[in-house]
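Deliverable D2.4 — example input (structure tokens):
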């Protein structure tokens, strides 16, 4: 027998199938094996078994060992592998690596096995007096314990803690007890208190309608458009329950950042041991165990971030993508994929349902729902008829004219005071971390920049350092200008760190917490900050977009958006859409319980149309306005943007690769001109990151152009050169 093996080596040169002699091992497709490879040993994935091979006998080598007892890649995942390879142009090994926990490779993490003692069946219903001597109390005790308290068995280590080890040995020798190896699971968040309130409320009419529609469908895609606080999570949980009751399994995806303890608690209390949790903050061992629970069928529900879409559950009944518009669903690193596409594929394979949920769906998703590709379900009101918060638009230009140059408008300052005095809580949103966004010389205009990247540095006061947000490099702060020697150094825009400082000064008795990439660097910091805020140990939470999603703090009555325009002025066709989504999501944190909420949105362009829709909570109005603009300007969903990015330390060499690719694409354009709206090459807006020069080709294609898109991807594949990174992406979330 011969095995077809894909090497676990990430290089395009070895992305092909190697045949090996099974060497007498009982090998199945989907297992991993160790094999001789060149002059070394390598691990590989068996993707097929066959009787014969074209490789000459003297060249064929034997498998050294088998790394798995049973296949770890399911048939479905093999089919997905094919799809991702041909449609997304990803190397097989990169795809296979997505399918299994990283720590499994190289045998770094294994199942923990423990010895389990179980009463042998033939002794279960017998009278113990027949085989236990009178007076052998320890044996009698052990027998009772195993037959009454632990009919499914107990770990030997646990038994030895409370009962006689001698009695157990005796039973094992006589065959009264069987001792086997059992896999033991590391359980993440095992100490999480489980909440009591399970399904004790009536669904609203709208929730009921959504549940019924999803529950009676199969193989369908739904868009659940529900305002913030409308109870989408409840709909998800009931739909999952329904799927389980039909013997199916479920995947629920949320943005990494909203995998809050609150969310975990909800799922744990509803689904108990049926839930596996998959996200990046888990330890390697935990991740591995949760993943195995999916593979073996011990877990039937997966709750996780993006990569949980690859969970090896069998017989999927429903896939849910919450906050579907969130950018974290697009993998921006190799392997690049869009979670929605994978979800759509698995939906079809399993004849399952796919539910996309959001208060602010992406333009593409809503557009496809309007054109019949998804069924629209709506939750138009908050639960218990709570009103959406009042949104006040504050014109910061007017504030400046009145002499208030601070980042806090008078209305926000008095709002904060009122909120704190009333015993409520406030959240302040500013999408800029650090203390000051750039440092500039007032005399000559010098701006401190990173040596390795084409970006300005950000001052961080805690570390008293200038930091590069792209490569993490740190520099000493400037006391004088390195160009002209002047001591007039100006700090740029305020960041979250400075806002937190300013708040502590303005409200000395108030507790202030800050949540951004800097304050959540350590494991568990994220949950700790949210926990403290939830327990009302602080009055104000300041943060970046990390605080925008999913949180449900009943005492938050005021939300301040300090600089709403930040995302508006990015040179990207999606900048208005992002601004709408972000401000609506942040605003949605206010007034979720009995006290009404208020949002103060500070802007320098109060007349921009986007704020009107934010104020009215009018997603559909916004959509209509924006979709018209997209149609006129021919941007997605009315076109496809394919960007090819080439980067490398050697500017000239990278330029050569770019030119090669461009020539090929130009040749394609020659024969298929009608599919192209635009084609050009240029330096990328960020010209250099981590010492690598970046350049790009931008192609805008009509929507009906899958073959041209594929040809562009192929052109990139064919022009790969060692030392230069090059890849294509379609409708990338960042055009920098
Ligand atoms: P969304 O995800 O739509 O923003 P959530 O799912 O967080 O909203 O729901 C907001 C709150 O309302 C949660 O605390 C939830 O437990 C509660 N809730 C959901 N459905 C109902 C209902 N039918 N009746 C009362 N409370 C509900
Ligand atoms: Zn200077
Ligand atoms: Zn840098």
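Example output (designed residues):
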């Amino acid at each position: 027998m011969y095995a077809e093996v894909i090497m676990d080596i990430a290089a395009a040169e070895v992305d092909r199938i190697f045949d090996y002699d099974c060497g007498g091992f009982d090998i199945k497709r989907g297992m991993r094996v160790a094999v001789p490879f060149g002059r070394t040993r390598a691990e590989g994935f068996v993707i097929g078994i066959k009787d014969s091979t074209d490789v000459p006998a003297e060249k064929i080598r034997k498998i050294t060992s088998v790394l798995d007892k049973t296949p770890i890649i399911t048939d479905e995942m093999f089919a997905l592998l094919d799809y991702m390879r041909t449609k997304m142009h990803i190397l097989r090994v990169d795809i296979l690596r997505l399918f299994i926990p990283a720590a499994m490779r190289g045998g770094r993490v294994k199942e923990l096995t423990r010895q389990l003692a179980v009463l042998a069946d033939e002794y279960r219903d017998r009278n113990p007096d027949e085989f236990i001597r009178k007076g052998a109390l320890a044996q009698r005790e052990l027998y009772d314990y195993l037959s009454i308290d632990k009919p499914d068995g107990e770990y030997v280590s646990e038994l030895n803690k409370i009962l006689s080890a001698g009695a157990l040995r005796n039973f094992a020798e006589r065959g009264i007890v069987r001792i086997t190896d059992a896999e033991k699971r590391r359980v993440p968040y095992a100490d999480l208190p489980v909440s009591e309130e399970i399904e004790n409320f009536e669904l609203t009419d709208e929730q009921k309608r959504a549940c019924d529609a999803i529950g009676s469908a199969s193989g369908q895609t739904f868009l659940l458009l529900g305002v913030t606080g409308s109870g989408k999570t409840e709909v998800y949980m009931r739909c999952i329950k329904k799927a389980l009751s039909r013997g199916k399994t479920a995947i629920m995806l949320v943005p990494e950042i909203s995998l809050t303890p609150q969310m975990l608690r909800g799922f744990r209390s509803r689904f108990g041991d049926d839930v596996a949790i998959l996200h990046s903050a888990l330890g390697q061992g935990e991740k591995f165990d949760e993943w195995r629970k999916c593979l073996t069928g011990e877990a039937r529900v997966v709750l996780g971030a993006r990569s949980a879409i690859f969970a090896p559950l069998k017989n999927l009944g429903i896939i849910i993508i919450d906050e579907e518009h969130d950018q974290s669903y697009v993998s921006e690193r190799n392997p690049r994929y869009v979670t929605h596409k994978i979800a759509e594929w698995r939906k079809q394979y399993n004849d399952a349902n796919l539910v996309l949920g959001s208060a602010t769906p992406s333009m593409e998703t809503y557009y496809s729902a309007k054109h019949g590709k998804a069924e629209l379900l709506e939750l138009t009101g908050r639960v218990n008829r709570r009103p959406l918060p009042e949104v006040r638009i504050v014109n910061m230009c007017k504030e400046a004219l009145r002499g208030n140059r601070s980042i806090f408008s008078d209305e926000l300052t008095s709002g904060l005071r009122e909120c704190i005095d009333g015993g409520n809580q406030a959240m302040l949103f500013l999408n800029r971390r650090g203390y000051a966004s750039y440092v500039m010389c007032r005399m000559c205009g010098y701006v401190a920049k990173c040596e390795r990247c084409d970006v300005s540095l950000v001052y961080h006061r805690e570390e008293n350092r200038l930091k590069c947000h792209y490569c993490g490099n740190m520099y000493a702060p400037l006391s004088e200008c390195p160009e002209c020697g002047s001591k007039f150094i100006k700090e740029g825009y305020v960041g979250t760190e400075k806002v937190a400082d300013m708040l502590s000064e303005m409200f000395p008795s108030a507790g202030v917490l800050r949540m951004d990439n800097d304050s959540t660097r350590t494991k568990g910091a994220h949950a700790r900050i949210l926990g403290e805020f939830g327990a009302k140990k602080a009055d104000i939470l300041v943060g970046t977009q990390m605080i925008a999603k999913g949180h449900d703090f009943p005492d938050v009555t005021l939300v301040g958006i300090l600089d709403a325009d930040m995302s508006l002025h990015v040179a990207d066709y999606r900048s208005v859409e992002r601004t709408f989504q972000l401000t609506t999501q942040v605003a949605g944190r206010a007034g979720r319980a009995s006290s009404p909420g208020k949002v103060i949105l500070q802007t320098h362009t109060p007349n921009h149309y986007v704020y009107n829709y934010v104020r009215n909570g009018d997603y559909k109005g916004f959509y209509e306005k924006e979709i018209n603009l997209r149609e006129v300007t021919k941007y997605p969903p009315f076109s496809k943007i394919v960007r090819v990015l080439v980067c490398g330390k050697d500017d000239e060499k990278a330029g050569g690769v770019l030119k090669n690719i461009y020539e090929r694409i130009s040749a394609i354009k020659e024969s298929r001109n009608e599919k192209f709206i635009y084609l050009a090459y240029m330096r990328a807006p960020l010209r250099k990151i981590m010492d690598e020069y970046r350049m790009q080709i931008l192609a805008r294609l009509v929507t009906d152009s899958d073959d041209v898109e594929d040809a562009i991807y192929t052109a990139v594949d064919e022009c790969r050169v060692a030392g230069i990174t090059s890849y294509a992406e379609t409708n990338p979330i960042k055009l920098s």
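The chain has a mean pLDDT of 91.
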